[in-house]
Amino acid sequence: MFRTAVIRSFAAATRTAIRPIPSVSARRLAIAPVSKPSSFVPKTVAWQAVRCYASGGSLERGEVYERIKLLLSGFDKVNDPANITETAHFANDLGLDSLDTVEVVMAIEEEFSIEIPDKDADTIHSVDKAVEYILSQPDAN
Amino acid sequence: MRLSGLQKEVLGLYRQCLRECRKKPQATRQHFQVFARSEFDKNIKVDKRDFAAIEFLLRKGRRQLEIYSSPGVKDIR
């Protein structure tokens, strides 16, 4: 999408730039105060279609929790989906063992397309810790 | 719950196994995950103070992971 937008805006820019070249005298006469705004309008419109990498992208706490909850409710080793709360502890509240916890953390990694290093993964033992960690990661989405 | 260094190593190995699973074809990935879990479950009863046994199993597991992570291995059952 980014590439097509770039090509489109480039084409729009060159189209207006090339047109006056054949008539050199005409270009000299009209010092192009009128054609300038019209040539720039399509360019900005095309650029607005591009979503820059720097824009937005931060996650809401509620949304992160909902996604983790959905992920956990799909995990068949959780003792009771009703136990999944904002502060649920994986081992104490959801009845998961340490290997299950590793699986959950890996699933969270995949869900938010980030990589959690072992050191941090060992500290994630509960839903609120997981939410906290995701929110602290700028790459998470 | 506080984990000992050895316990962390075991969990690290399991994490590594799951990471390797992701490199396998989508269709058989589940088989690899179930297999990895069953290998760990086989020795779930090992006492946590039995360092020699755990060290041995860790070495064995790492070797096994190395073998199965070769791209030639496409399925497991």
Question: Can you offer a commentary on this structure?
Answer:
The complex is a heterodimer of chains A (141) and B (77). Chain A is mainly α and 141 residues long. Helices cover 55% and strands 0% of the residues of chain A. Chain A has 7 helices and no strands. Chain A has helices at 2-18, 24-29, 35-48, 61-73, 98-111, 118-121, 127-136. In chain A, helix 1 runs antiparallel to helix 3 and helix 4 (61-73) packs across helix 5 (98-111). Chain A is elongated. The two termini of chain A are 19 Å apart. Chain B is an all-alpha fold. Chain B has one domain. Helix content of chain B is 64%, strand content 0%. Chain B has helices at residues 5-21, 29-42, 51-68. In chain B, helix 1 (5-21) packs antiparallel against helix 2 and helix 1 (5-21) packs parallel to helix 3. The longest helix of chain B has 18 residues, at 51-68. The relative contact order of chain B is 0.18. Chain A binds chain B through residues 91, 98-99, 102-103, 105-106, 110, 118, 121-122, 125, and chain B through 1, 3, 7-8, 11-12, 14-15, 18-19, 22, 37, 40-41.
Summarize the structure.
Chain A has 7 helices and no strands.
For the structure shown, list the relevant keywords:
heterodimer, A: 141 residues, mainly alpha, 7 helices, 0% strand, elongated, B: 77 residues, 64% helix, PP-bd_ACP (chain A), phosphoprotein (chain A), lipid metabolism (chain A)
- Terminal Cα span of chain B: 34 Å
Question: Which structural class do you get from the secondary structure elements of chain B?
Answer: mainly alpha
Give the count of helical stretches of chain A: 7
Give me the secondary-structure category of chain A.
mainly alpha
- Average per-residue pLDDT of chain B, rounded, comes to 92
Helix fraction of chain B, binned, reads 55-70%
Low-confidence stretches of chain B: none
**Protein chain pair with the most extensive contact, residues per chain:** A-B, 12 and 14 residues
Mean of residue pLDDT of chain A? Answer: 76
Number of helices of chain B: 3
Shape of chain B: elongated
Measured between the Cα atoms of the first and last residue of chain A, the distance is 19 Å
Protein name (chain B): Complex 1 LYR protein domain-containing protein
Keywords (chain B): Chaperone, Mitochondrion
Subcellular location (chain B): Mitochondrion matrix
Family (chain B): Belongs to the complex I LYR family. SDHAF1 subfamily.
